[in-house]
Design a protein that fits this description.
The structure is a single chain. This protein has 768 residues and is α/β, with parallel strands linked by helices. Among the domains are: 101 residues, Alpha-Beta Complex (DNA Primase, Chain A); 135 residues, no CATH class; 191 residues, P-loop containing nucleotide triphosphate hydrolases (Rossmann fold, 3-Layer(aba) Sandwich), CATH 3.40.50.300. 46% of the residues lie in helices and 16% in strands. The strands form five sheets. The chain has a nine-stranded mixed beta sheet with strand order 19-18-20-21-17-22-23-24-25, with helices on both faces. The chain has a five-stranded antiparallel beta sheet with strand order 2-3-4-5-6. β12, α11 and β13 form a beta-alpha-beta unit. α11 packs parallel to α14, α18 crosses α19 and α24 packs across α26. 36% of the residues are buried.
Length: 768
C-alpha cells in the first residue's frame, strides 16, 4: 500500500493557500497571510506560505492551531480517505494509488500537531521576560521583532512547563513524551528554538541553540545546537521555503537562512554544519533542483566543505557555483547584517562556477608553484580530482583553469589527464573482471548455466556504460587553423632520393618490412642515426625486441666510424678494440665513440631492449614524450611484441598490438617506425607485395606508410643454401603504401655490410 505522507509531499506545495482559506479573508503580509481565526473570529490567525498550518496569535485566549488536512476535514466532514482525495483534487495532483496505509501517517500527524502547538507557545514566550536573552541575541544579529515572528523563532521552556501547556490543550501525556521534547538540556542549557520542517512544511521538531560559551559547552560535553529526539537532518534546512525557487543557495547556519528569508531573499537552505550529506543532496534532486550556489563560511572548514560539496554535486552532472565571502566576513549572516541584503545579492550574481573555484582552491594549497616539487604535487592532485568530474564540458573547463594557473599548455595537460583516467579505468576494469569471474563461478557451481550467461552479459553491459571517457570538446574552425599552423611536417629519412617520394608521417605508423637477414634492422638503424644527425633538437628512441643494447650499440659505433678492420668480422674486431684500451688508438673509432657519447649524454639517443608488453611500451613512450622533445620512436619488430591479454590467434593479437601503437602515435603526436618481418609471396619468391604483411595480422591497415626491403643477393644465397660473402650488395626499397604520396615506386641502395652502412645508389636513382 502507498504511503500518504509521500503523496502529501507532492500535494501541499501545489495548493494555493489564498484560495484554500478564501472564506477566512486572508491578506498577504510579507511571507505569510493574516486571516480571520475560525475559532475566535478575530483577525489574528496567520498562515505561512511555507507551512501547512493555520495558527491564531491570541494564544492565551484562543490557541487555535490546525493543519490544512484537519481544517478541510472538519469543514466538510470528510473521512480520512476522502480528505486525501479532496486535497489532491484541489492541488490538481494525480494520486499514485487508490488505497493507503494510514497508521504511520496519523502517528506523524499527531506529532506534527503537538510540535505546532508547542511552537505557538515558544513564539509567545520569546517576547516575555524569560525569553529576553534570546530576543536580545536575535536583535544583535539583525532581526527586528516583526522578523522574529516571521521567522517563527521562539524560546524553549523547561519540559515540565511545556508539558503542562500541552496537557491543557487536550494532548495525551504518552503522546507528549514520545516526540522528544524532553531531550536533555532543552529548556535549560539550550533555549533558542528554531522550527525544523520537512519539504512540505510539516514541523518535525526543533533545533535549539545554547548561549553558553564554547568552554562552558566543552565542560558539559555539549554542542552549540541540540535537536529534539528523532530529527533526521536528511532534508536541507528551510527547503520548504525554497520550493518555488529554481536554484538553491546553500549556507551553513540555520539563522543565516532565516535572516535572508525575512529580508526578502528566498532560496537559502542550511546544512546545519559545513558538509553537504548524500541524503540532503539526494532529497534536493528528488524535488527537482538542478542548480546550486555554495555560500559556506569563510574559514578552513567552510572551504573544505565547499570542495566536497562541489565534488558531490558535479558527480550528479548538476550546475554548481560558489559565492566567496569578502575577507573579514565569516558567514553570510554577518555580511547581510553589516552590508545589507542587496550587497549579498550582488555577490550572488557574480558567483563563479564550482569547477573554476576548485581549480584555484586546489592549487592554493601549495606554497610555491614555481618549484618543481610543489608544481608536480599540484598537477598530481589536480588530475586526481579531475578524474571525479563526469561531465566532459565541466572537465574541459576545469582543466583549462588548472592549465592557466600552472601555465601549462591545455592540450598537453588534457593528454596527461586522459592517460591518468585510462589508468584508473584499467584498474577499475581489473577489479570488475575479478569480481565478475568470482560471482559467475558461484552461479556455475550451482548448475545454473543459463543464469550465469545472463548475469555475465548484464554485467558486461554495465562496465561498458560506466567506462571512463576522455575529455571531449567541440572541434571548431579556430581549432583547425591552430592545428594546421602547429602541424609538423613529416620527418626526412636522410636519403635524398627516398625523401623526394615520401616523408615519415607524424602521428602515424610507418612500417619497414623485410624478410629475415635482408637488412631490415640495419636499414632502421641507418634511418635512426640519420634523424639524430639531421634533427639536433630532438630525442629518438629505438626499442629492440630482437637484439640487445650491447649488440645495437656496437652496430651504431660501427656505422659512425665507417672503419673496416676485418671485412669478415668487423663487429668482433670493434668489440675487441673497446675491451682493450691499451691498443693503438684508431681515430675513426675514437671519433665515433665521442659522437655517440654526445648523443647519449644529451639524452638524444636511447636504445632500449626490455621486452615490454605493448601496454608497458605505450606507457614508456608516454613517459619519454613528457620528459623530452621526442622526434620519433623506432620499434624492431612488431611480431616480437607481446600482449597481456590472450586471443584465439596470434594474428588477432598482433592486430591489437598494432592498434595500441597507432593510438599512441596519435595521442603523443609522434611518428612511430615499426619493423616487421615480411612473409614470402606464394607465387613468386622475389616479388614483394602488401599481401605479404597480411599474414602478420593486417598490420598494414593501421600504417600510413609501408616500405619493404628486398636483398636479392641474400635471397639468392639463401635459395642456394650458401653464405653471402659479398662486401657490398644492392638493396631495393619498395613503397607499398603511402597515404600522402607516391606508391609502387622503387629506390636503389648499396649496403656496405662490414660497416653496416646503407647509402643510395646514385647512378640507378638519377631518374629521381
Amino acid at each position: 500500500m502507498a504511503d500518504i505522507s509521500e503523496e502529501l509531499d507532492q500535494i501541499y506545495p501545489r495548493i494555493n493557500k489564498l484560495e484554500f482559506f478564501s472564506e477566512l479573508n486572508p491578506q498577504r503580509r510579507a511571507n505569510y497571510y493574516l486571516a480571520t481565526c475560525p475559532f475566535c473570529n478575530n483577525k489574528s490567525a496567520y498562515i505561512y506560505e511555507s507551512s501547512i498550518y493555520i495558527n491564531c496569535n491570541r494564544i492565551n485566549n484562543c490557541s487555535y492551531s490546525q493543519s490544512m488536512w484537519s481544517y478541510l476535514q472538519e469543514k466538510k466532514g470528510l473521512s480520512n480517505q476522502e480528505t486525501l482525495f479532496e486535497l489532491a483534487k484541489i492541488a490538481g495532483y494525480s494520486l499514485k494509488a487508490k488505497t493507503y496505509s494510514e497508521e504511520r501517517f496519523f502517528i506523524n500527524k499527531k506529532k506534527g500537531d503537538i510540535f505546532e502547538k508547542s511552537l505557538n507557545y515558544m513564539k509567545e514566550l520569546i517576547f516575555q521576560e524569560k525569553g529576553k536573552e534570546c530576543l536580545s541575541y536575535l536583535k544583535k544579529r539583525g532581526f527586528s521583532e516583526e522578523e522574529i515572528k516571521e521567522a517563527e523563532i521562539g524560546f524553549f521552556p523547561n519540559y515540565e512547563e511545556l508539558k503542562e501547556y500541552l496537557l491543557k490543550n487536550d494532548f495525551e501525556d504518552n503522546d507528549i513524551k514520545s516526540i522528544g521534547l524532553n531531550t536533555k538540556g532543552l529548556g535549560k542549557t539550550h533555549t533558542l528554538a528554531i522550527p525544523y520542517r520537512d519539504i512540505s512544511g510539516i514541523l518535525k521538531g526543533f533545533i535549539v541553540r545554547s548561549f553558553l560559551s564554547d568552554s562552558e559547552l566543552k565542560e558539559i560535553d555539549e554542542q552549540k545546537y541540540k535537536y529534539t529526539y528523532g530529527i533526521e537532518k536528511s532534508t536541507l534546512f528551510n527547503l520548504h521555503n525554497a520550493r518555488k525557487q529554481k536554484e538553491l543557495i546553500i549556507v551553513e547556519g540555520y539563522l543565516d537562512c532565516l535572516i535572508a528569508n525575512v529580508k526578502g531573499l528566498n532560496g537559502l537552505v542550511g546544512l546545519g554544519g559545513n558538509h553537504l550529506t548524500e541524503k540532503q543532496l539526494e532529497n534536493a534532486i528528488k524535488y527537482g533542483y538542478k542548480s546550486f550556489t555554495l555560500a559556506l563560511d569563510n574559514d578552513k572548514a567552510g572551504r573544505e566543505g565547499t570542495e566536497k560539496a562541489i565534488k558531490s554535486i558535479s558527480k550528479q552532472g548538476l550546475k554548481v557555483y560558489v559565492l566567496t565571502l569578502p575577507d573579514g566576513y565569516k558567514d553570510p549572516d554577518e555580511l547581510i547584517r553589516e552590508k545589507g541584503i542587496d550587497f549579498f545579492n550582488g555577490l550572488l550574481k557574480n558567483s563563479i562556477s564550482g569547477i573554476k573555484w576548485i581549480a584555484h582552491y586546489l592549487l592554493k594549497k601549495y606554497n610555491n608553484l614555481a618549484t618543481d616539487k610543489d608544481k608536480e604535487s599540484a598537477i598530481e592532485e589536480a588530475i586526481q580530482y579531475g578524474e571525479t568530474i563526469y561531465d566532459p564540458i565541466q572537465a574541459h573547463e576545469y582543466l583549462k583553469n588548472i592549465s592557466d594557473v600552472l601555465d601549462i599548455e591545455l592540450e598537453f595537460f588534457e593528454a596527461t589527464f586522459n592517460r591518468y583516467k585510462e589508468k584508473i579505468d584499467q584498474q577499475k576494469k581489473e577489479r570488475f573482471y575479478k569480481e565478475l569471474i568470482k560471482d559467475a563461478g558461484k552461479i556455475v557451481e550451482e548448475g545454473k548455466i543459463d543464469e550465469a550467461d545472463l548475469f555475465i552479459n548484464n554485467r558486461l553491459d554495465e562496465i561498458k556504460s560506466s567506462h571512463v571517457k576522455k575529455i571531449i570538446r567541440p572541434y571548431t574552425i579556430s581549432d583547425l587553423k591552430v592545428d594546421l599552423a602547429n602541424t609538423q611536417e613529416g620527418l626526412k629519412t636522410g636519403f635524398d632520393y627516398l625523401d623526394k617520394l615520401l616523408l615519415i608521417p607524424q602521428e602515424a605508423i610507418t612500417i619497414v618490412a623485410g624478410r629475415p637477414s635482408h637488412g631490415k634492422t640495419t636499414f632502421l638503424l641507418n634511418i635512426f642515426m640519420n634523424m639524430i644527425k639531421n634533427y639536433p633538437d630532438k630525442a629518438f628512441l629505438f626499442f629492440s625486441y630482437e637484439e640487445t643494447k650491447k649488440q645495437l650499440t656496437l652496430k651504431i659505433l660501427n656505422m659512425l666510424g665507417e672503419k673496416i678492420q676485418n671485412e669478415k668480422r668487423n663487429l668482433q674486431e670493434l668489440e675487441y678494440y673497446l675491451k682493450n684500451p691499451e691498443r693503438t688508438k684508431i681515430p675513426e673509432i675514437e671519433k665515433s665513440i665521442n659522437l655517440l657519447e654526445s648523443y647519449t649524454e644529451n639524452s638524444r639517443l636511447w636504445i632500449i631492449d626490455e621486452p615490454f608488453y605493448v601496454e608497458q611500451l605505450v606507457n614508456q613512450i608516454a613517459y619519454f614524450k613528457e620528459k623530452y622533445n621526442l622526434g620519433a620512436v623506432f620499434i624492431d619488430y612488431i611480431q616480437k611484441i607481446k600482449l597481456k591479454a590472450k586471443y584465439n590467434t596470434r594474428q588477432i593479437e598482433i592486430q591489437k598490438i598494432s592498434e595500441s601503437i597507432l593510438e599512441a602515435a596519435k595521442k603523443y603526436s609522434i611518428p612511430i617506425v615499426l619493423g616487421a618481418q615480411l612473409g614470402r609471396d606464394k607465387d613468386s619468391k622475389n616479388k614483394i607485395r602488401l599481401d605479404n604483411l597480411r599474414e602478420a595480422g593486417d598490420i598494414e591497415n593501421d600504417a600510413n606508410l609501408v616500405i619493404a626491403l628486398n636483398n636479392e643477393a641474400m635471397d639468392k644465397a639463401q635459395s642456394e643454401n650458401k653464405k653471402l660473402t659479398d662486401r657490398k650488395v644492392n638493396l631495393k626499397v619498395h613503397i607499398l603504401k603511402n597515404r600522402n604520396g607516391s606508391v609502387n615506386e622503387e629506390v636503389d641502395f648499396i649496403f656496405d655490410r662490414p660497416i653496416l652502412k646503407i647509402t643510395e645508389d646514385i647512378d640507378k636513382n638519377k631518374k629521381w
